[in-house]
Amino acid sequence: MGYATKGAIILLKTEPSIQVQAAIAVIMTIAGFYFNITSTEWIAQTFCIGLVMGLEGMNTTAEAIADFIHPDFHEKIGHIKDIAAGAVVITAIAAAVVGFIIYTPYVVALFE
Ligand SMILES: Nc1ncnc2c1ncn2[C@@H]1O[C@H](COP(=O)(O)OP(=O)(O)OP(=O)(O)O)[C@@H](O)[C@H]1O
Protein backbone atom coordinates (compact mmCIF):
# COMPACT_ATOMS: atom_id res chain seq x y z
CA MET A 1 0.00 0.00 0.00
CA GLY A 2 2.90 2.38 0.78
CA TYR A 3 4.45 2.06 -2.68
CA ALA A 4 1.02 2.16 -4.33
CA THR A 5 0.09 5.33 -2.44
CA LYS A 6 3.44 6.83 -3.45
CA GLY A 7 2.62 5.98 -7.09
CA ALA A 8 -0.83 7.57 -6.85
CA ILE A 9 0.70 10.74 -5.36
CA ILE A 10 3.30 10.85 -8.18
CA LEU A 11 0.50 10.57 -10.75
CA LEU A 12 -1.49 13.37 -9.10
CA LYS A 13 1.56 15.63 -8.76
CA THR A 14 3.12 15.12 -12.19
CA GLU A 15 0.46 14.11 -14.72
CA PRO A 16 -1.60 17.00 -16.15
CA SER A 17 -4.29 14.67 -17.53
CA ILE A 18 -4.75 13.02 -14.12
CA GLN A 19 -4.89 16.49 -12.52
CA VAL A 20 -7.65 17.56 -14.93
CA GLN A 21 -9.55 14.34 -14.22
CA ALA A 22 -9.13 14.85 -10.46
CA ALA A 23 -10.53 18.38 -10.81
CA ILE A 24 -13.51 17.01 -12.78
CA ALA A 25 -13.97 14.34 -10.07
CA VAL A 26 -14.12 17.06 -7.38
CA ILE A 27 -16.65 19.07 -9.44
CA MET A 28 -18.82 15.98 -10.01
CA THR A 29 -18.65 15.12 -6.29
CA ILE A 30 -19.82 18.64 -5.41
CA ALA A 31 -22.60 18.27 -8.00
CA GLY A 32 -23.56 14.94 -6.42
CA PHE A 33 -24.00 16.58 -3.01
CA TYR A 34 -25.75 19.63 -4.50
CA PHE A 35 -28.35 17.53 -6.36
CA ASN A 36 -28.49 14.92 -3.57
CA ILE A 37 -28.12 12.04 -6.03
CA THR A 38 -29.17 8.53 -4.98
CA SER A 39 -26.88 5.79 -3.63
CA THR A 40 -27.02 3.96 -6.96
CA GLU A 41 -26.05 7.16 -8.78
CA TRP A 42 -23.15 7.67 -6.35
CA ILE A 43 -21.97 4.12 -7.07
CA ALA A 44 -22.11 4.71 -10.86
CA GLN A 45 -20.35 8.08 -10.56
CA THR A 46 -17.63 6.81 -8.22
CA PHE A 47 -17.04 3.78 -10.43
CA CYS A 48 -16.69 5.99 -13.51
CA ILE A 49 -14.23 8.33 -11.76
CA GLY A 50 -12.11 5.40 -10.57
CA LEU A 51 -12.24 3.69 -13.95
CA VAL A 52 -11.15 6.76 -15.95
CA MET A 53 -8.43 7.84 -13.51
CA GLY A 54 -7.17 4.30 -13.02
CA LEU A 55 -6.93 3.69 -16.76
CA GLU A 56 -5.26 7.08 -17.24
CA GLY A 57 -2.63 5.89 -14.76
CA MET A 58 -2.14 2.72 -16.81
CA ASN A 59 -1.87 4.88 -19.95
CA THR A 60 0.87 6.89 -18.26
CA THR A 61 2.57 3.61 -17.33
CA ALA A 62 2.44 2.39 -20.95
CA GLU A 63 3.91 5.72 -22.13
CA ALA A 64 6.71 5.55 -19.55
CA ILE A 65 7.59 1.96 -20.49
CA ALA A 66 7.51 2.85 -24.21
CA ASP A 67 9.79 5.87 -23.66
CA PHE A 68 12.18 3.77 -21.55
CA ILE A 69 12.38 0.93 -24.07
CA HIS A 70 12.63 3.19 -27.11
CA PRO A 71 13.20 6.90 -26.38
CA ASP A 72 13.51 7.80 -30.07
CA PHE A 73 10.68 8.25 -32.54
CA HIS A 74 9.28 4.95 -33.83
CA GLU A 75 6.05 4.14 -35.63
CA LYS A 76 5.31 1.21 -33.28
CA ILE A 77 5.88 3.34 -30.16
CA GLY A 78 3.41 5.84 -31.59
CA HIS A 79 0.93 3.01 -32.20
CA ILE A 80 1.34 1.70 -28.63
CA LYS A 81 0.81 5.18 -27.17
CA ASP A 82 -2.19 5.83 -29.43
CA ILE A 83 -4.04 2.65 -28.42
CA ALA A 84 -3.23 3.19 -24.72
CA ALA A 85 -4.73 6.70 -25.00
CA GLY A 86 -7.65 5.28 -26.99
CA ALA A 87 -8.51 2.96 -24.11
CA VAL A 88 -8.84 5.99 -21.82
CA VAL A 89 -11.05 7.80 -24.32
CA ILE A 90 -13.45 4.83 -24.44
CA THR A 91 -13.92 4.93 -20.64
CA ALA A 92 -14.16 8.75 -20.67
CA ILE A 93 -16.99 8.62 -23.25
CA ALA A 94 -18.81 6.00 -21.16
CA ALA A 95 -18.33 8.17 -18.04
CA ALA A 96 -19.70 11.22 -19.87
CA VAL A 97 -22.78 9.22 -20.91
CA VAL A 98 -23.30 8.05 -17.30
CA GLY A 99 -22.96 11.66 -16.09
CA PHE A 100 -25.46 12.82 -18.70
CA ILE A 101 -27.97 10.13 -17.67
CA ILE A 102 -27.58 10.95 -13.94
CA TYR A 103 -27.69 14.74 -14.11
CA THR A 104 -30.08 15.53 -16.98
CA PRO A 105 -33.25 14.94 -14.87
CA TYR A 106 -31.84 17.04 -11.98
CA VAL A 107 -30.86 19.93 -14.26
CA VAL A 108 -34.19 19.80 -16.11
CA ALA A 109 -36.00 19.90 -12.72
CA LEU A 110 -34.13 23.13 -11.88
CA PHE A 111 -35.88 24.90 -14.77
CA GLU A 112 -39.36 23.55 -14.10
N1 LIG B 1 8.52 7.97 -29.58
C1 LIG B 1 7.46 8.18 -30.36
N2 LIG B 1 7.38 7.65 -31.59
C2 LIG B 1 6.29 7.87 -32.37
N3 LIG B 1 5.21 8.59 -32.00
C3 LIG B 1 5.21 9.13 -30.78
C4 LIG B 1 6.33 8.97 -29.89
N4 LIG B 1 6.06 9.63 -28.74
C5 LIG B 1 4.83 10.14 -28.90
N5 LIG B 1 4.32 9.85 -30.11
C6 LIG B 1 2.99 10.28 -30.62
O1 LIG B 1 2.56 11.41 -29.86
C7 LIG B 1 1.37 11.10 -29.13
C8 LIG B 1 1.44 11.74 -27.76
O2 LIG B 1 2.50 11.13 -27.03
P1 LIG B 1 2.98 11.61 -25.61
O3 LIG B 1 4.01 10.69 -25.09
O4 LIG B 1 3.34 13.07 -25.71
O5 LIG B 1 1.67 11.44 -24.78
P2 LIG B 1 0.91 12.53 -23.94
O6 LIG B 1 0.62 13.73 -24.77
O7 LIG B 1 1.68 12.68 -22.68
O8 LIG B 1 -0.44 11.71 -23.76
P3 LIG B 1 -1.42 11.70 -22.51
O9 LIG B 1 -2.09 13.05 -22.52
O10 LIG B 1 -2.36 10.56 -22.81
O11 LIG B 1 -0.59 11.44 -21.29
C9 LIG B 1 1.30 9.56 -29.09
O12 LIG B 1 -0.03 9.10 -28.94
C10 LIG B 1 1.92 9.18 -30.40
O13 LIG B 1 0.98 9.29 -31.46
From TrEMBL:
Keywords attached to this entry: ATP-binding, Cell membrane, Kinase, Lipid biosynthesis, Lipid metabolism, Membrane, Nucleotide-binding, Phospholipid biosynthesis, Phospholipid metabolism, Transferase, Transmembrane, Transmembrane helix
InterPro entries referenced in this protein's UniProt entry, alphabetically: DAGK, DAGK_sf, UDPK
Membrane topology: Multi-pass membrane protein
Family annotation (Gene3D superfamilies): 1.10.287.3610
A molecular function (GO) term: kinase activity
TM regions (residue ranges): 20-37, 83-106
The keyword Nucleotide-binding appears for this protein: yes
Top-level taxon in the UniProt lineage: Bacteria
Localization per Swiss-Prot or TrEMBL: Cell membrane
One family name in Pfam for this protein: DAGK_prokar
Stated family: Belongs to the bacterial diacylglycerol kinase family.
Protein name: Diacylglycerol kinase (ATP)
Native organism: Nonlabens dokdonensis
Taxonomic path: Bacteria, Pseudomonadati, Bacteroidota, Flavobacteriia, Flavobacteriales
